[in-house]
UniProtKB/TrEMBL annotation:
Gene Ontology annotations of biological process type: glutaminyl-tRNAGln biosynthesis via transamidation; translation
E.C. no: 6.3.5.-
Family assignment from sequence similarity: Belongs to the GatB/GatE family. GatB subfamily.
Descriptive protein name: Aspartyl/glutamyl-tRNA(Asn/Gln) amidotransferase subunit B
Gene Ontology MF term list: ATP binding; glutaminyl-tRNA synthase (glutamine-hydrolyzing) activity
Species the sequence originates in: Candidatus Avipropionibacterium avicola
Taxonomic placement: Bacteria, Bacillati, Actinomycetota, Actinomycetes, Propionibacteriales
Function: Allows the formation of correctly charged Asn-tRNA(Asn) or Gln-tRNA(Gln) through the transamidation of misacylated Asp-tRNA(Asn) or Glu-tRNA(Gln) in organisms which lack either or both of asparaginyl-tRNA or glutaminyl-tRNA synthetases. The reaction takes place in the presence of glutamine and ATP through an activated phospho-Asp-tRNA(Asn) or phospho-Glu-tRNA(Gln).
Keywords: ATP-binding, Ligase, Nucleotide-binding, Protein biosynthesis
HAMAP family associated with the record: GatB
PROSITE patterns per the UniProt record, alphabetical: GATB
Quaternary structure annotation from Swiss-Prot or TrEMBL: Heterotrimer of A, B and C subunits.
The keyword Nucleotide-binding is assigned to this record: yes
Every Asn/Gln amidotransferase domain range: 349-496
Reaction(s) this enzyme catalyzes, per UniProt: L-aspartyl-tRNA(Asn) + L-glutamine + ATP + H2O = L-asparaginyl-tRNA(Asn) + L-glutamate + ADP + phosphate + 2 H(+); L-glutamyl-tRNA(Gln) + L-glutamine + ATP + H2O = L-glutaminyl-tRNA(Gln) + L-glutamate + ADP + phosphate + H(+)
Length: 497
């Protein structure tokens, strides 16, 4: 059942939002954080477990060196200081998918701290302060059976899969984000998108949000205009798409504002995001740090990365996302407005990969920002999930360039590719979509159009060449769109002198 909400403009007239974003990144190491079990996604339930990640008595953890390396590189890429000495802690809490009843994490001694990142929204640059990036292990997964929603409410029973338990995680925590105003939801989306691009460039994670390897916990509170004290926050857990990050924060702002303006108080709690209805619902009361009874992990020695190692890892960092976007914009010849649009829908990587497949930047932009983004919006999914790969878009444009299909027919090719009918060339052949290049067939169609429209033909003979458009339309209709409009025009003018 949805709660009362306030109009967004009314929210902004009376309150200032404060955000705090906690992004969890599953690393793509071959083995788990503290044991040698595989981390492959989608394995048979509980097939990738051992006494260590199941928390059995007497099993001792060992730190994954590759995970530490990835954590340092992430910290450096976010302009963080890297600790000379840090340690793990036990975070104590009971949850069915946490087999040890505690999580090995970092608390007051993270490996990376005091960093920052910058994102741009509508031409305005926002600086996001990073409090810390710390190492920890992921939990298992609960599967609730028998209910209508897949959640525990209404389920007849639950199953536990511990394959994910112990997978290396980096949690990146921002300091409070203030001053974003009405752009707060967009700033949050842009920040998570920036992290996704950066982590992919670092090669430390596949950052597939739909599989949970990148997910965001969004903390939101409101301050009445003219005040400086933060309000009570809520934490919307495990938001797993860029679009949902923006929508969840926007909804929470309108919900909290309705509570406050009616004289109520916001509860400190976790919330669940519902993609289908676009609302959040209450989870559990939110714990504070002391509730977790943190203490140093007795089975692990401290981590002390040498300065030489840190300096060597610094040399492996990729081009910063902002600089990369400026370079690509220059290489592609996009205007500032065009590049902003590309960034806002998450098309930078897609266009870059399409260009790498041999397509021009403008053609790649035409398809991703036109037909494909329209379909993504209709389905309310991310552009990258629309179902067409950069290689297929490049192949499609190759068919257009070779005059095998025109733009109108190319849209039908997209239909076929998205329907699983094969690669673009296979769809063209199977559906018979190739442009008719036989001059005999085109001439016959032109003659029919001339005979059916003598008044138009007379205008063209009289010098009104622009009237040829009407005949071209008739021919294209007769040929079911499978004609080269430019060649049809040439034939019309030839036939009419």
């Amino acid at each position: 059942m949805s709660e009362a909400v306030l109009d967004f403009d009314e929210v902004m007239a009376n309150f200032d939002p404060v955000l705090g974003l906690e992004v969890h990144v599953e690393l793509n190491t071959a083995s788990k954080m503290f044991c040698g079990c595989a981390t492959t996604f989608g394995g048979e339930a509980n097939s990738q477990t051992c006494p260590v990640c199941l928390g059995l008595p007497g099993a001792l953890p060992v730190v994954n060196a590759s995970a530490v390396e990835s954590a340092i590189r992430i910290g450096l890429a976010l302009n963080c200081s890297i600790a000379e000495h840090c340690r793990f802690a036990r975070k104590n809490y009971f949850y069915p998918d946490q087999p040890k009843n505690y999580q090995i994490s970092q608390y007051d001694e993270p490996i990376a701290f005091d960093g920052f990142a910058e994102v741009e929204v509508d031409g305005e640059v926002f600086r996001i302060e990073i409090e810390r990036a710390h190492m920890e292990e992921d939990t298992g997964k609960s599967l609730h059976i028998g209910g209508a929603t897949g959640r525990i409410h209404g389920a007849s029973h639950s199953l536990l899969d511990y394959n994910r338990a112990g997978v290396p995680l980096i949690e990146i925590v921002t300091k409070p984000i203030v001053g974003a105003g009405e752009k707060a939801p967009q700033v949050a989306r842009a920040y998570v998108a920036m992290l996704r691009d950066l982590l992919r460039a670092l090669g430390v994670s596949d950052v597939r949000m739909e599989q949970g390897s990148l997910r965001c916990d969004a903390n939101v509170s409101l301050m009445p205009k003219g005040t400086t004290s933060f309000g009570t926050r809520t934490e919307t857990k495990n938001v797993n798409s860029l679009r949902s990050v923006e929508r969840a924060i926007r909804y929470e702002m309108t919900r909290q504002a309705a509570v406050l303006t009616s004289g109520g108080t916001v509860d400190l709690q976790t919330r669940h995001w519902h993609e289908d209805t676009g609302i959040t619902t209450a989870g559990r009361n939110k714990e504070e740090a002391e509730d977790y009874r943190y203490f140093p992990e007795p089975d692990l020695v401290p981590v002390a990365p040498s300065r030489e190692w840190v300096d060597q890892l610094r040399t492996t960092l990729p081009e910063p996302p902002a600089e990369r976007r400026k370079r690509l914009q220059s290489d592609w010849g996009f205007s500032d407005a065009e590049m902003r649009d590309v960034v806002s829908v998450g098309a930078v990587e897609l266009i870059e990969q399409t260009v790498a497949e041999g397509c021009t930047a403008q053609a790649a932009r035409k398809w991703w920002m036109g037909e494909l983004v329209r379909r993504a919006n209709e389905q309310q999914i991310e552009l990258a999930e629309v179902g067409m790969s950069p290689a297929q878009v490049a192949q499609l444009q190759g068919l257009v360039d070779a005059k095998v299909v025109n733009d109108k027919l190319a849209r039908q090719v997209i239909d076929g590719v998205l329907a699983g009918e094969g690669e673009p060339q296979q769809v063209v052949e199977a559906r018979g979509l190739a442009v008719v290049s036989d001059d005999g067939a085109l001439t016959a169609a032109v003659d029919e159009a001339i005979a059916a429209n003598p008044d138009v033909a007379d205008k063209i003979r009289g010098g009104k060449v622009q009237a040829a458009g009407a005949l071209i339309g008739q021919v294209m209709k007769a040929m079911r769109g499978q004609a080269d409009a430019a060649r049809v025009r040439e034939i019309i003018l030839e036939r009419l002198g």
